[in-house]
Design a protein that fits this description.
Elements: E1 12-16, H1 49-61, E2 66-70, H2 80-85, E3 92-97, H3 102-112, E4 116-120, H4 126-133, H5 138-150, E5 156-162, H6 170-179, E6 183-189, H7 192-195, H8 204-214, E7 217-221, E8 226-231, E9 250-255, H9 261-265, E10 269-272, E11 277-279, E12 289-290, H10 296-308, E13 318-320, E14 326-328
Parallel strand pairs: 1-2, 1-10, 2-3, 3-4, 4-5, 5-6, 6-9
Antiparallel strand pairs: 7-8, 8-9, 10-11, 11-12, 13-14
Length: about 325
C-alpha cells in the first residue's frame, strides 16, 4: 500500500469516466476541473475501456480496495457494465449518478458486480429540483432510486449539496430517508472554492447542530473525520426516559471539507480524470499528472509520483495566517 509523506494510506480511487452529463447543476465543479463539458456524444479524449481496467489493475497491485466511478454522468458510458465486471477481484465498486438511467440498467450493473450507488437528489420538490439541476427529470430520478433498491443496491445513498437554494429542504429529506428503508442521506457542503458564488454557502455547523438535536445516535467515522447521525421517523421527540426516537431509523452523513484541516488529514483517495490524468486532491489542478499511453509501467510510475506529492489541502497547502485567513503555502507552489 502506498503512503504519502503525511502518513495517509491510499485505499481508494475515484475515477471520472466522462465529463458529459444530461444535467446542468448550478453547483457542479466536475470533479474539481470546472466546466469542461462538450457535446453529449462520446469524445476521443475519454479513457478507453481497457485503459480504465488497466489502471484499476495497477491500483489493486498497491492494495487499493475501492473504486467509485463518477462523471459527468458515468452511466452515459456504454461500457460501464463491462468496466465494473472487469474490475479486479477484491475491489469494491460503487457509482455516483444522477439516477436517470438506473431504471434500465440497475439490474445489469448489479449482475456485473456493482456493490453500491449514490444518487444525486437535492430536493423532494420537483420545481426546486428543476431550478438546481436545470433538468425536468425529477420523476426519472425517483424511479432510478426505486430501480436501484429493487436490484439489491441497498442502501442507496442520496447525495444532497447543501447551499442557499437547498438548505430549507434538509428537514424534509431527513424525514424521507428516516421513513424509507434502504435509503441513506449524504449532505455535502457546498464548495465555493470550486463552484464560485461564495454567497450561496451556508454555515454547515448549524446543520450539524440541528442534526444532533434530531438524532438518537451520533457516530464518528475516521475517514475524512465525518459524523453520522441516526434519525428515526419520530426525530427530536423524547420518550419518558429522555431517549430520542425509538428505532435505528435513517442514516444522515455530513461531508464538510471546506476549511476543514481534519477532513483533509484523513483523505485516503486519489482521483482520475476522464482524460487519464491522476490528481492527488480535488481542490487542485496544479498537481495533474498524465499517465501517458497508460501502459502498466507508466501507470505505476505516475501513481507513485502522485501519492508521494499528495498534500492535505487545508492545513498544509492552504495555511491560516495571523488574521485567520487562508493563503497558499509557497512551499507547494509549482510542485
Amino acid at each position: 500500500m502506498l503512503v504519502d509523506q503525511f502518513g495517509r494510506e491510499v485505499t481508494g480511487v475515484r475515477v471520472s469516466l466522462t465529463d458529459r452529463c444530461n444535467f446542468d447543476c448550478v453547483y457542479c465543479h466536475n470533479e474539481g476541473l470546472g466546466d469542461t463539458r462538450g457535446p453529449m456524444e462520446p469524445q476521443d479524449n475519454e479513457m478507453a475501456t481497457d485503459d480504465v481496467v488497466r489502471f484499476l489493475e495497477v491500483a489493486r497491485e498497491f492494495d487499493v480496495d475501492a473504486v467509485k466511478f463518477t462523471g459527468g454522468e458515468p452511466m452515459l458510458r456504454d461500457d460501464l457494465a463491462e468496466i465494473i465486471e472487469r474490475a479486479p477481484a477484491g475491489m469494491e465498486t460503487s457509482l455516483t449518478t444522477n439516477g436517470t438511467y438506473l431504471p434500465g440498467q440497475a439490474e445489469e450493473l448489479v449482475a456485473a458486480g456493482l456493490d453500491r450507488v449514490n444518487v444525486s437528489q437535492d430536493a423532494l420538490d420537483p420545481e426546486a429540483f428543476k431550478q438546481v439541476t436545470q433538468s425536468g427529470e425529477y420523476e426519472a430520478v425517483i424511479e432510478g432510486v426505486d430501480a436501484a433498491l429493487d436490484a439489491g443496491l441497498d442502501p442507496v445513498k442520496l447525495n444532497m449539496v447543501v447551499f442557499e437554494a437547498t438548505a430549507g429542504y434538509v428537514p424534509e429529506m431527513v424525514d424521507h430517508v428516516a421513513a424509507n428503508d434502504g435509503l441513506q442521506l449524504q449532505l455535502i457542503e457546498y464548495m465555493p472554492e470550486l463552484a464560485g458564488r461564495p454567497d450561496w454557502a451556508v454555515d454547515i455547523e448549524r446543520v450539524h447542530g440541528w442534526l444532533e438535536e434530531q438524532a438518537h445516535t451520533v457516530e464518528h467515522r475516521e475517514m475524512h473525520d465525518r459524523r453520522r447521525y441516526w434519525i428515526d421517523e419520530k426525530r427530536g421527540e423524547q420518550s419518558d426516559d429522555g431517549a430520542k426516537g425509538t428505532g435505528d431509523g435513517g442514516m444522515v452523513e455530513v461531508v464538510d471539507p471546506v476549511e476543514n484541516a481534519e477532513f483533509c488529514a484523513n483523505c485516503h483517495r486519489v482521483r482520475v480524470t476522464h482524460e487519464g490524468y491522476l490528481k492527488g486532491c480535488l481542490n487542485r489542478n496544479d498537481d495533474l499528472r498524465s499517465m501517458g499511453e497508460m501502459t502498466k509501467p507508466e501507470i505505476r510510475e505516475t501513481f507513485r509520483e502522485v501519492v508521494a506529492n499528495r498534500v492535505p489541502y487545508y492545513g498544509e497547502y492552504m495555511m491560516k495566517d495571523d488574521d485567520g485567513e487562508w493563503s497558499i503555502n509557497e512551499e507547494y507552489i509549482g510542485v
